[in-house]
What we know:
This protein is mainly α. It is 80% helix and 0% strand. It is built from five helices and no strands. Helix 2 runs antiparallel to helix 3 and helix 3 packs antiparallel against helix 4. The protein is globular, with a radius of gyration of 18 Å.
Amino acid sequence: xxxxxxxxxxxxxxxxxACGNAPKDESEELGKQLxxxxxxxxxxxxxxxxxTIKDKIKALATVxxxxxxxDQLPNYQKIVKDNAAQIKSVVGDNTIVNSAIxxxxxxxxSSIDASSIANFVSNLK
Length: 125
């Protein structure tokens, strides 16, 4: 019986650990995809990855997910900030890409609450 309980606790612990790492893994995967598109000098690919990042942030921008948004937004912003110069060197004067970079990096979720979530999302357009 003790072995069964220990195994059950181990499974529960692994499940929580896996769930906790998912958002970081997701942002890391998008970071890898962005790097690949930059290396290929694929403007459309870069636009697509930046669009996906914006969509992920928009999905988090709900009243129910405010805490997750505050935790995960810096991961997405770091990806974009770290690659902004390389992105701009590939895409040049691309209004869509440059506005996406500005929108993502300019977000501030630190003081967001239920009453300001709609304004936050409108800044991602």
